[in-house]
Design brief:
37% of the residues lie in helices and 27% in strands. It has 59 residues and is of the alpha+beta class. It has one domain (3-58). It has a three-stranded antiparallel beta sheet with strand order 1-3-2. A hairpin with an 8-residue loop joins strand 2 (38-44) and strand 3. The longest helix is centred in the N-terminal third of the chain and has 16 residues, at 3-18. The radius of gyration is 11 Å and the shape is globular.
């Protein structure tokens, strides 16, 4: 399984913990080229990754 799929799966699972519907990583926020609003939720350690991910909710 590639890193992007692993991260997506981990973010999907974190929705329950954060009480959200759509979570995205900081990497995704910085690559979006349209005007969307995101709310920073902090950083998390996800299984299968050495570094912490900054997570955002699509507002």
């Amino acid at each position: 399984m590639g890193d992007a799929i692993n991260v997506a799966s981990r973010l999907e699972g974190l929705n329950k913990e954060f009480g959200t519907s759509i979570l995205v990583s900081g990497e995704m926020v910085h690559s979006v080229e349209v005007d969307l609003t995101f709310r920073a939720l902090g950083s998390v350690q996800v299984k299968g990754r050495g570094e912490r991910l900054t997570v955002f909710e699509l507002a």
